[in-house]
Specification:
CATH topology of the largest domain: SH3 type barrels
Strand order of the largest sheet: 6-5-4-3-7
Radius of gyration: 24 Å
Largest sheet: 5 strands, antiparallel
Number of helices: 11
Low-confidence stretches: none
Helix content: 40-55%
CATH class of the largest domain: Mainly Beta
Structural class: alpha+beta
Number of strands: 11
Mean pLDDT: 81
Distance between the termini: 72 Å
């Protein structure tokens, strides 16, 4: 048997210990980009060095999952300056977006990780971290800066995990009016703006509630049962951005000048990409939210052509015409 590199085995051991639901061989193959046989060897090496591995009982996919519980890893796992710098950069990006509570949580996490460093490595890591922070920055990007009520994110997360109805005053953009709403919270979506996904008694489907438009939120004593069939990721993938509309099949063609940039761009999680003989690129996906598609496609200028659907092409043309007339 060929022994795998020590770092590869340690990386897998860390993932197996951190995965509460365990990992399958398929997970190991995909995450480390290795073959099934190599995945089996690494799993067995972790079992021999740090095990025994524990099987995890799960009925959702019919596959065998393994998890590791070992104190032996504690002295072997280290935190690098680069990893701490990434946490700092992510916190700064959240600050820019107005999500200060999430930024504070990342900074707290970074401080806790630094506190676990051994004394002999702490000075070196802190020095490297200071250099990285000075050498890297965030480019200024225009976008909404949300102002959320202090404690709102923590309150909503508690309501989601405890399955309690939340009540809040909500400012509706369309009517410019405020009203009290009671919502069964299902999850949070982060994009250009943060939204709560939740059910109300007067809607047939989950709705989106902009966090920046909420005030005076509180958790009620009313409990609800979460629908086990609801999947937040599938719900989000129905739309381009956050607008929820009936999904349509979209076909976009980018000319040869923009093909390389478009190939590196992720328009939708379920997109397919096809290179054409003339150097152009065709992107296909299915989603709702035509207005948000138009706002984005406008930034590609004449390099993109909407091939399908026709109503998206008409909507984009109408928006461009109205903007030209305005200016």
């Amino acid at each position: 048997m060929r022994y795998e590199g020590l770092k590869d085995i340690l990386d897998l051991a860390v993932r197996l210990q951190g995965a509460h639901g365990g990992l399958t061989l398929d997970d190991i193959e995909a995450e480390f980009s290795i073959s099934r046989r190599t995945a089996e060897r690494r799993r067995d090496a972790v079992d021999a060095a740090f095990g025994p591995l524990e099987p995890v009982d799960r009925d959702d996919d019919g596959k065998r999952h393994w998890r590791l519980r070992s104190d032996a890893l504690r002295r072997l796992v280290s935190v690098s300056a680069e990893e701490l710098a990434e946490l700092g950069a992510a916190a700064a990006a959240l600050d820019r977006a107005g999500l200060g509570e999430r930024a504070a949580m990342l900074r707290d996490l970074a401080a806790k990780l630094q506190a676990t460093l051994r004394a002999e490595s702490q000075a070196r890591v802190e020095s490297d971290l200071e250099m990285l922070v000075q050498a890297e920055g965030l480019a200024m990007r225009p976008g909404p800066r949300q102002r959320l009520d202090r404690g709102l994110l923590a309150l909503l997360r508690e309501a989601i995990t405890t399955c309690r109805v939340v009540e809040f005053r909500y400012f509706a953009q369309s009517t410019r009016r405020r009203s009290w709403q009671q919502v069964r919270p299902l999850g949070l979506l982060y994009g250009n703006r943060a939204h709560l996904v939740g059910w109300t008694e007067w809607a047939e489907e989950p709705r989106l509630w902009r966090l920046a438009n909420m005030s005076e939120a509180r958790i009620t004593d009313e409990a609800f049962e979460r629908d086990p069939a609801f999947d937040l990721h599938r719900f989000a993938e129905r739309s381009f951005g956050t607008f929820q509309e009936k999904p349509v099949k979209v076909v976009l063609r980018f000319d040869a000048r923009a093909a390389r940039d478009a190939a590196a761009f992720r328009f939708h999680p379920n997109q397919s990409v096809e290179e054409n003989e003339d150097g152009s690129l065709t992107v296909r996906f299915e989603a709702g939210g035509l207005d948000e598609m138009c706002w984005h496609l406008f930034t590609w200028g004449e390099s993109v052509t909407v091939e399908k659907p026709a109503r998206l092409r008409r909507r984009l043309a109408a928006m461009c015409g109205a903007l030209a007339a305005h200016h």
